[in-house]
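Could you join me in thinking about how sequence relates to backbone shape in a protein? Label the sequence line and the structure token line clearly, so we can match residues to local backbone shapes. Once you have written the record down, we can walk along the chain together.
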Amino acid sequence: WYANCFSGTREPRRFSPRTLRLGGILRQAIVNDGQNDDKKNEDEENSENEPVVEPQGAAIDAPSPTGPLTETEAVTGRGPSSTIEFQPPPPRLLAGLTSLRHRDFRIYWLSQLVSLTGTWMQIVAQSWLVLTLSDSPFILGVVSALQFLPTLTLSMAGGVIADRLPRRQLLLATQSSAMILAFTLAVLTQLSLVNIGIVMILALLVGTVNAVDMPTRQAFVVELVSGEDLHNAIALNSAAFNSARLVGPAVAGLAIGYLGLAGAFYANVFSFLAVIGGLLFITAGRQAIPRQGQAGSFWQDMREGLRYVAGNTRVRMVILLVGIVSGFALNLNVLIPILAKDPLNVGAQGLGFLTSAAGVGSLVAAVWLAFMGRRVQSRLLMFAAFGLGLAEVLIGFLPNFAADMVLLAVVGFTMIVFTTLANTVVQIATPDALRGRVMSVYTTVFVGITPLGSLFAGSLAEVSGVGAPFAVGGLASMVSAVLVYWFMTTRQEAP
């Protein structure tokens, strides 16, 4: 029966995809088990009348999606090398996890999930520590500015380093340094030796490490997956980040209440062991990315990255929009603690729930993007920026705990849709040899502008209350999204 079906001597018959897959497996087993040379020659003669055989693994023309396959649509060759070339798409449940088929990315993603949970615990605990020591929204803004200031000034240099050195070894160095700094803060807090000055110094040092770590991590993802899985990998990275953002603040609120601030800081220290251990098992990134032509000086390499960004309209406009939204609308690390303390007055546990509400929306967005894949239109990032601004304007006028939790979930959703699609557009438009430098420009704008935004948000909240920076930041995001969208569509460059 099997030989008759696939010998090519009968009229095309129609089979279900499951039957075709089973037939392909059985045929390969029969061939490998014992066909003699005469049979092989006979198969080769029969195959001369068949259509041209594509290389094994190549995709054939897509069959009609509404009907079952014919054997001529499915079988592309004869003899021992015959294979069923058509492979139906994976089940919908697994379609959003395709990048996890890569071993190195799977290890990296799981380790990041653990480490980022600890990082979010430290972010919440440090903000609460600063407010406890100073009781000043402005001081909280200064600490946040100091932590992100090195990203503004040093990320371009970090991008050049990421393009020159093996990225895996570079990440091992940056993650180990961050773990030491976290351990220092935990010990000083436990011994009651911490003060605002020490927190500011440690925040500045952490920012210096992040100036190299962030562009390196952005560029490293491309080495872990194939090109067709890049969009999915970026979306899953966002899912990991926002899963941690969901769990970390809630756990931090409980840890602060039952173990104290030092307990949350120690949890972050132990979380670094996961990512450091994962990097030791990853095989990618052990060699520097090959460069085309002779390497220039450090400053020449930096200028080359800036020239590429300036000369690519799509990349330039997306990064500009990211800078405006990041500076005015993404100061949640400063504004949410102030919102929890006054006017809501919900304490550390309420702070954890508010931050987790944003994390819920962010996680839903990241999972949605992972499963939608390439069907999501990149133009959606403009509408996401507008929706983010609208939600923040509403928060500014609704100082209610339940309403703010819902609106923060909307903020989290639109924020991740916007940032993930912006990251994807820039990554896809950038060649490998320039990726570290271009992503360092993206990081400088996305994260480095935060010091100015933090100072703006903290100062405005000090004078006018927390509603004012939410409203002003939201309006800036809405207006910039409309203007950039208009500019890109008039030039037919909509990303």
User: Anything to note?
Assistant: Residues 1-15, 47-88 have pLDDT under 50 and may be disordered. The chain is about 75% helix and 0% strand.
